[in-house]
């Protein structure tokens, strides 16, 4: 059976469930997939209407019997179960297009290559923590007889969930939305989705006129390059939302350890420093530096001569780690170049 036939079955499945797909849209069959206009489409046209019954989240009746610790885990267990059912699944036309087997085959190679490139960066630390957590989660689910797939497939499905969820309004759970999940990202998106107040359907609408062959994109949000690489496996050469986030900690030998920990807790300061695209610290991060760099109780939470060397040491150490990374791939080069640029701007500001 051809790939085009699978897409047609998928479109028919959505229509059978009460949805609508614009007649001049196709899902591209290349590796990147994506949605494309096959003919001219006017601005503010309804590109797709996806009924709420096809929005997959913890409130869906098909997830009612899934006992999960988190919303993400519920989605992973749901996709795992439906994957095992194959053609007996009510979601099979969509599950088939997700190509979970191929995802599993390629994921380890891609992620290991990414990790090898960025091992010494904060992204490398995040990837390490993520896969350690996945190993522990899989072992628990497997021992509890809640999952019946390999660890590789489990990781692939976890990746699919993270890369395809839509951030619905605050009162709605994280969700997967068939068809809309094939749209690629662009900060200057040509379409946007919203929930109809009356029907609760999800509607994908064009924000501009679309020419034949033009890709239909949505915005995944104001994410940094690190977030884009971590969640989706790509990033942007120019990303105005980019930043550097450095985790920080206190030495157990710090004489002011208890005082600093108490103050950080009282001020609700996250244990990390955030530098924006221009190398400037956020307000919370500026205050955290004052606390962490203090050498006496009277200077705690005040600007002191210790703030500058504390930051310089932290930034120079991270820059050295970044220089140990490799930029063999296009996306890792974008990420590393931007990280180095932001760190250098922050260092220049300290001169």
TrEMBL record:
Domain SET: 106-221
Pfam families found in the cross-reference section: SET (PF00856)
GO molecular function: protein-lysine N-methyltransferase activity
Domain of life: Eukaryota
UniProt-listed SUPFAM superfamilies: SET domain
Protein name: SET domain-containing protein
């Amino acid at each position: 059976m051809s790939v085009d036939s699978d897409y047609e079955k998928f479109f028919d499945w959505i229509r059978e469930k009460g949805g609508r797909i614009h007649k001049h849209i196709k899902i591209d069959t290349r590796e990147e997939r994506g949605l494309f206009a096959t003919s001219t489409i006017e601005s503010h046209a309804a590109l797709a209407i996806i009924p709420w019954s096809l929005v997959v989240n913890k409130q869906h009746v098909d997830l009612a019997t899934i006992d999960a610790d988190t919303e993400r885990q519920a989605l992973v267990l749901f996709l795992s179960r439906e994957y095992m059912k194959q053609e007996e699944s009510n979601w099979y036309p969509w599950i088939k297009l997700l190509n979970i087997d191929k995802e599993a085959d390629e994921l380890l190679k891609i992620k290991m290559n990414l990790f090898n490139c960025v091992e010494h960066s904060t992204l490398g630390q995040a990837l390490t923590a993520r896969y350690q957590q996945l190993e522990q989660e899989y072992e628990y689910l497997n021992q509890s007889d809640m999952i019946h797939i390999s660890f590789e497939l489990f990781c692939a499905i976890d990746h699919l969930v993270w890369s395809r969820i839509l951030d619905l309004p605050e009162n709605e759970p994280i969700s997967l939305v068939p068809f809309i999940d094939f749209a690629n990202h662009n900060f200057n998106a040509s379409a946007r989705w919203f929930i109809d107040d009356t029907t609760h359907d999800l509607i994908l609408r064009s924000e501009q006129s679309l020419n034949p062959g033009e890709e239909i994109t949505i915005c995944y949000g104001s994410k940094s390059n690190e977030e884009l690489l971590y969640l989706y496996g790509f990033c942007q050469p120019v990303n105005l939302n980019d930043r550097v986030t450095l985790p920080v900690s206190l030495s157990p030998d710090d004489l002011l350890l208890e005082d600093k920990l108490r103050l950080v807790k009282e001020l609700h300061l996250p244990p990390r420093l955030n530098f924006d695209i221009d190398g400037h610290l956020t307000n919370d991060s500026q205050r955290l530096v004052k606390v962490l760099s203090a050498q006496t109780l009277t200077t705690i939470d005040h600007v002191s001569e210790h703030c500058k060397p504390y930051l310089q040491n932290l930034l120079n150490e991270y820059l050295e780690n970044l220089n140990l990374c490799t930029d063999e791939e296009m996306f890792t080069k974008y990420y590393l170049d931007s990280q180095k640029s932001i760190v250098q701007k922050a260092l220049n500001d300290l001169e």
